[in-house]
């Protein structure tokens, strides 16, 4: 749990001050929580708490706690050394302004060479994931918001896949209707240009290409999906809509368990996830070591469960900052051969 003595709290409605008794107050708007040492023992200090309202939609102590991020520089060496799995979103997490910077791609290689298991978790299509699984320094890639995972078997370099049994191909009439309604009701939105490479979802572009539409338009598209009984998530560039009962989190847990013997009860602190936008929220909420790149703050009003840590830099540079922090704390800033040793144990 976060130690707020070390934490750098963010946002105009957050503040920290001494209470005169050796503890500290955490202020969330007009809500005050007294924390003696950690947020574990926080309790409501303000008797009027239930009447106060926060611009972030915070209604309870629990809400306040999950809405706080602290700087990645506060990660401890013990937390970094406990990590085994590095999961990350791609768009606006590894990328910056639509490009994959040298810094974040190099960071993937350094993490890989340090023996960590690397798994991008993305809304991008099957066609892209084929390339990523084969050519990037990764152990697998979850695609189309959790419909499937692709990975390459080191022996024989065979590409393997696991698909969620509830996934429905994207020619389903419900998805066609969602797309037709969106194109009529939200002028300027369009099918994503990577749609031809998709198997199970439709992606509606609102901000990957010009003209960039406001987030309010993306939310209107999501509302159409909700009305039609179709699952949908908003990323920083697309609204993705699908039929099956899955998301990024459920597929990540299923596959890590099957492939690496991961136990979600036992091993949750061995996972770090890095993301940037509302479609990453299930991961932010689930993994106590989740991190946001700095641009996650753009979506603060749309994300209740913010990640525990935040980078100071945006996009790919933020990911590189997080990777360097982890590697430095683990005492392996550059690949030192640990990779082979680690893999023998998996
Ligand atoms: Mg993203």
Describe it:
By secondary structure, this protein is α/β, with parallel strands linked by helices. The chain has three domains: 14-68, no CATH class; 73-166 and 246-345, Rossmann fold; 173-242, Hypothetical Protein Ta0175, Chain: A, domain 2, CATH 3.90.1070.10. The protein has helices spanning 61-66, 77-81, 102-113, 126-135, 173-185, 215-227, 248-260, 281-286, 315-330, 338-345; strands at residues 14-18, 24-28, 31-35, 43-44, 70-71, 85-88, 117-120, 141-143, 148-152, 159-163, 190-191, 201-205, 231-234, 238-242, 271-275, 291-292, 309-310. A six-stranded parallel β-sheet has the order 5-17-16-15-6-7. The chain has a four-stranded antiparallel β-sheet with strand order 1-2-3-4, with no helix packed on it. Helix 3 packs parallel to helix 9 (315-330) and helix 5 runs antiparallel to helix 6. The longest helix is centred in the C-terminal third of the chain and has 16 residues, at 315-330. It starts with 13 loop residues before the first strand and ends with a helix. Residues 1-59 and 335-346 have low confidence and may be disordered. Magnesium ion is lined by residues 89, 91-93, 235-236, 276-277.
């Amino acid at each position: 749990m976060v130690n707020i003595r070390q934490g750098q709290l963010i946002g105009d409605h957050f503040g920290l001050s001494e209470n005169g008794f050796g503890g500290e107050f955490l202020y969330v708007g007009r809500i005050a929580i007294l924390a003696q040492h950690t947020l574990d023992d926080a309790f409501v200090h303000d008797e009027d708490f239930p009447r106060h309202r926060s611009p972030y939609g915070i209604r309870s102590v629990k809400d306040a706690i999950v809405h706080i991020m602290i700087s990645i520089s506060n990660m401890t060496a013990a937390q970094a050394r406990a990590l085994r799995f590095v999961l990350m979103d791609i768009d606006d997490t590894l990328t910056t302004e639509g490009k994959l910077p040298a810094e974040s791609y190099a960071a993937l290689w350094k993490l890989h060479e340090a023996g960590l298991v690397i798994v991008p978790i993305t809304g991008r299509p099957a066609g892209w994931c084929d390339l990523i699984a084969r050519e990037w320094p990764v152990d697998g890639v979850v695609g189309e918001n959790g419909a499937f995972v692709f990975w390459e078997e080191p022996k024989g370099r065979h590409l393997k896949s696991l698909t969620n049994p509830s996934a429905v191909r994207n020619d389903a009439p419900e998805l066609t209707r969602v797309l037709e309604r969106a194109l009529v009701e939200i002028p300027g939105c369009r099918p994503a240009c990577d749609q031809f490479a998709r198997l199970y979802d439709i992606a509606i572009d609102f901000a990957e290409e010009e003209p960039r539409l406001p987030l309010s338009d993306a939310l209107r598209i999501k509302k159409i999906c909700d009305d039609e009984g179709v699952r949908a998530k908003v990323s920083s560039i697309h609204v993705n809509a699908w039929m099956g009962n899955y998301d990024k989190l459920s597929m990540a847990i299923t596959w890590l368990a099957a492939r690496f013997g991961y136990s979600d009860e036992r091993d949750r602190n061995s996972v770090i996830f890095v993301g940037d936008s509302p479609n990453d929220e299930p991961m932010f909420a689930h993994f106590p070591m989740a991190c946001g790149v700095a641009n996650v703050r753009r979506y603060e009003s749309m994300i209740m469960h913010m990640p525990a840590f935040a980078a100071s830099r945006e996009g790919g540079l933020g990911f590189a900052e997080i990777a360097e922090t982890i590697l430095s704390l683990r005492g392996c800033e550059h690949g030192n051969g640990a990779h082979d040793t680690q893999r023998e144990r998996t």
